[in-house]
UniProtKB/TrEMBL annotation:
Residues 7-151 form the MEDS domain. PANTHER family: ANTI-SIGMA-F FACTOR RSBW, ANTI-SIGMA-F FACTOR RSBW-RELATED. This is Sensor histidine kinase. Residues 198-306 form the Histidine kinase/HSP90-like ATPase domain. One of its GO terms (molecular function) is protein serine/threonine kinase activity. Keywords: Kinase, Serine/threonine-protein kinase, Transferase. NCBIfam families: RsbA_anti_sig.
Length: 323
């Protein structure tokens, strides 16, 4: 692999602009023997298959809503495929069209963060990533954000530098600049002076079982809470406060202590090296939860874990309707 890693954005206004950028990228990969993948919606897949002809059989198509289900897991999957290809003397070439519609602002922020961090996580793999963004459908802020997280923009078959591109860690710091809103008044909470993980997990489980959280998601949350509480005792300072509350579509668990964590770079935002130590720490917490927010400094560290809650199933009662 003589070419270096690249991560480019393809803003497009219609089908012609989409194909003008996507087809050369995919065809070059097929010709070079790369591992070529395309994560797009079904409509874009049909367009690409028709235009590629027989070469489409050399492209691995996956549905975008499946590929882009969780920022940290997607980053881990992409890195695993890139390292596997590199180990075979090949290159991962991914055409990935992120799913932006119907996402809450926090979700959009985390996906934009993942786009920035891909430049760090995959830099050593030689992978080539091209991310189409529909300029007709997406908000202007999403397009502007893409120019900050992708070093280059594709115009047809050409790539030009993005003058607004930010260093990934500077971008990440900007994502965490806003302070977190205070917990709601109805939040359930307790002060912890002596950590007993058994009773802590029982407390969280009792609260969670009053919600619609499935049992498998609860077990993941308990593992995440254990890791965060362990970090609070090792790197933080007393007192430690645990708070729990629900939002319309999420269960939120907050751990707050009076210390300033020294999290190094990123607080588990990147997958640990495959040949490193076995403990995954905050990276594992990010994989286990829907969203993780961390704020530290000025004598306090706050970690908020969010797990999605399935909607309440409403069943019709036959007695509600008179015969």
């Amino acid at each position: 692999m003589s070419e270096a890693f690249s991560h480019r954005v393809l803003p497009y206004g219609g089908v012609e602009e989409f194909l003008a950028g996507a087809l050369p990228f995919l065809r070059e990969g097929v010709a070079a023997g790369d591992r070529v993948m395309a994560a797009t919606c079904l409509g874009s897949e049909m367009l690409l298959r028709d235009a590629l002809g027989a070469a489409a059989d050399r492209v691995e198509f996956v549905q975008a809503d499946t590929w882009y289900a969780h920022p940290s897991r997607t980053l881990a999957d992409c890195l695993a495929r890139a390292e596997e290809a590199a180990g075979q003397g090949r290159r991962l070439r991914l055409l990935g069209e992120p799913v932006w519609t119907c996402r809450a602002p926090l979700e959009v922020l985390e996906w934009q963060r993942a786009e920035a961090l891909a430049n760090v996580a995959l830099a050593h793999t030689g992978a080539r990533l091209l991310c189409p963004y529909s300029a007709r459908v997406l908000p202007a802020g999403v397009i502007a954000g893409a120019r900050k997280t992708h070093p280059e923009t594709v115009r047809g078959a050409q790539a030009v530098p993005n003058p607004g591109y930010l260093d990934p860690w500077a971008y990440n710091a900007a994502c965490d600049r806003e302070p977190l809103p205070p917990p709601p008044e109805h939040a359930d909470g307790m002060r912890i002076d002596l950590v007993d993980l058994y009773w802590l997990r029982a407390y969280v489980a009792d609260f969670a079982r009053q919600t619609t959280l499935p049992e498998d998601a609860l077990q993941r949350l308990l593992v995440a809470v254990t890791e965060v509480m362990t970090n609070a005792t090792l790197h933080g300072a007393p007192p430690i406060h645990l708070r729990l509350w629900t939002e319309p579509a999420a269960l939120v668990c907050e751990v707050r202590d009076a210390g300033d964590w020294n999290g190094g770079t990123g607080f588990g935002l990147l997958p640990p090296p495959s040949d490193g130590p076995g403990r995954f720490g905050l990276w594992a917490v990010r994989l286990l939860c829907s969203h993780v927010q961390i704020r530290t400094g000025r004598g306090a560290t706050v970690v908020r874990l969010r797990v999605g809650l399935p909607p309440v199933r409403v069943t019709e009662s036959l007695t509600a309707y008179p015969a």
